[in-house]
Design goal:
Helix content is 41%, strand content 19%. By secondary structure, the chain is α/β, with parallel strands linked by helices.
Length: 538
């Protein structure tokens, strides 16, 4: 894969500016950069979903397997088994070959075209290893611990963790030679993550991985591709992520030294030019030297390197618009099951008290997101009651980011009668949107940027009960820390699903609900670390 002088602009924002890079066959590459730098956008360019404004990106005849951050199944009625089988379209190719045989037997006038198509299809069957395909699929199913119950489930009914596992299995079975993986460890349980780590290390093809899971990257990659949001350039470093961070820090230290030296030279030139301008008209030599220095000054200013931007957070008023009830939420004797599935919970009961930070944890498939959907009325329980306090105002963050209007700008999405335009801009700055970035349309944003917009909008509703479902899934570690500070300052009640230890610590959790058991315990960091390990969530 080779990119030469690529240039891309989305709306008013430049993504790549004369950026170039080269990746060799069999390279395992981690793609890094802050949210919005253009990591997912690069995948869209490779997939042909976005066209470059200039430059060239070549991938040859690569067969691509793509795992997006947001997994959506085109046909939600397919069973997992049917979905996996479609990953290698062997049946579809064989059906077309049979049609070609019939047409050839009928002396079709398109004989030459049909023969060429037949040859292409037979070549595809060989690439798909059609004779060993079923064995390969069964091995993947066994290695990824996809049991019969899951195989017979409809893909539209899967939990987040199950979606990730099934989609990954389908990609591996598809037998591509170029893998594009966008946050592949989101939602994966520990055993599946271990299998995928081993698989990718030994994979006979090229792998490009966007991930904030440093341990995962270090076990797999031999190169790091850094997309710089400030310069819009792309640079490839040899080695793992840890080595990349050391080299990047060294480069930034040297860059700061260069910038300081450039600034001193510019200052001296400015002083000389000013002196020449103030000199007597008869001092022709000084005037001429001043003109020469002025030309040199403009050139130096144009060549001055840009510093990495450091933004200061502005204190924002995120207090709820009114005080809450003493018991904002009461769940009593709740039972629920999906069609043809065993009960997720039975007689589940708990109460929230005003101002507490309440955490829900459990293994993948335990029904954490489902419980939030039941509370929000998006699903109907089999029995039991869900009661909100009379003064409870709710704001809900779902993983699907459904509170955003993608046709509107970032600024339009967060507009709120409680805040002036200046306060809105300051609030967006707290969520790392600055300057003209706030006028970017949401459909142009990366998943991480969309998550930040949704979280900002949520806080600005000034609700006194926040219900959050995995709010850090799409965020890099630095961004998680900044966002966590905002939520740590919130004085209302929070009901949270998360296994992210650092984010949970920032919020200040008081109690934990363990699913599916339904046990309620005081916050226990060791127990959270256990579930973090089990679920391998960021």
């Amino acid at each position: 894969m080779k990119a030469t002088d690529i240039y891309l602009k989305l709306g008013t924002e430049t993504i790549y500016d004369d950026a170039s890079f080269q990746i060799n066959n069999l390279d395992k590459v981690g793609i890094v950069g802050v949210n919005g730098a253009g990591k997912t956008t690069l995948f869209k360019v490779i997939l042909g979903q976005l066209e470059l404004d200039a430059g060239e990106l070549s991938i040859g005849k690569a067969r691509i397997g793509f795992l997006p951050q947001e997994i959506k199944f085109e046909n939600p009625e397919l069973t997992v088994w049917e979905y996996l089988c479609e990953a290698r379209p062997i049946a579809k190719i064989n059906k077309r070959l049979e049609e070609i045989y019939v047409e050839l037997a009928d002396n079709s006038p398109q004989t030459q075209n049909l023969l060429r198509e037949m040859s292409d299809l037979q070549e595809q069957l060989e690439l798909l290893d059609c004779y060993n395909a079923e064995t390969a699929l069964l091995e993947i199913i066994e290695d990824m611990q996809i049991d019969d119950t899951l195989l017979n489930s409809k893909v539209g009914e899967l939990s987040g963790g199950q979606k990730s596992k099934v989609a990954f299995a389908g990609i591996l079975y598809g037998n591509p030679n170029l893998l594009l993986l966008d946050e592949p460890t989101n939602h994966l349980d520990a055993s599946t993550k271990d299998f995928i780590t081993s698989y990718l290390k030994n994979y006979k093809g090229t792998v490009l991985i966007i991930s904030h899971d440093v341990d995962f990257l270090n076990k797999i990659i031999n190169k790091v591709m850094f997309i710089n949001k400030v310069t819009h350039k792309i640079k490839v470093y040899d080695g793992d992520y840890t080595n990349f961070k050391k080299r990047l820090l060294e480069e930034r230290k040297l860059k700061e030294i260069r910038i300081q030296q450039q600034e001193k030279e510019i200052q001296k030139l400015e002083e000389f030019v000013q002196k020449a301008r103030q000199a007597s008209r008869t001092n022709h030599n000084l005037k001429r030297m001043g003109q020469d220095r002025e030309i040199k000054l403009e050139k130096k200013k144009a060549q001055l390197e840009k510093r990495e931007k450091v933004y200061q957070r502005v204190k924002m008023n995120i207090e709820p618009k009114r005080s809450n009830s003493k018991v904002p939420l009461s769940v009593q004797n709740l039972s629920f099951h999906y069609h043809d599935k065993p009960n997720l919970y039975e007689n589940l009961s708990f109460n929230l008290t005003d101002g507490e930070k309440f955490l829900i944890v459990g293994e993948n498939g335990a029904g954490k997101s489902t419980l939030l959907k039941l509370i929000m009325g998006k699903l109907k329980s089999d029995k039991g009651t869900i009661t909100f306090g009379g003064k409870t105002d709710i704001a809900y963050y779902a993983q699907e980011l459904e509170i955003l209007d993608e046709s509107k700008t970032i600024f339009e999405n967060v507009q709120n009668e409680h805040f002036s335009d200046l306060q809105l801009r300051n609030a967006l700055g707290n969520f790392l949107f600055f300057g003209n970035q706030v006028f970017k349309e949401v459909h142009l944003l990366s998943p991480g940027e969309k998550a930040r917009v949704a979280l900002c909008k949520l806080l600005m509703q000034k609700a006194n009960l926040l219900i959050l479902d995995e709010p850090t899934n799409h965020l890099d570690p630095d961004t998680q820390s900044v966002i966590g500070e905002n939520f740590g300052e919130y004085s209302g009640t929070i009901l949270l699903v998360s296994h992210n230890p650092s984010f949970v610590e920032q919020i200040g959790i008081t109690r934990m609900l363990i699913l599916p058991e339904g046990k309620i315990l005081d916050y226990n960091k060791e127990l959270l670390d256990y579930y973090y390990l089990i679920n391998s969530l960021e």
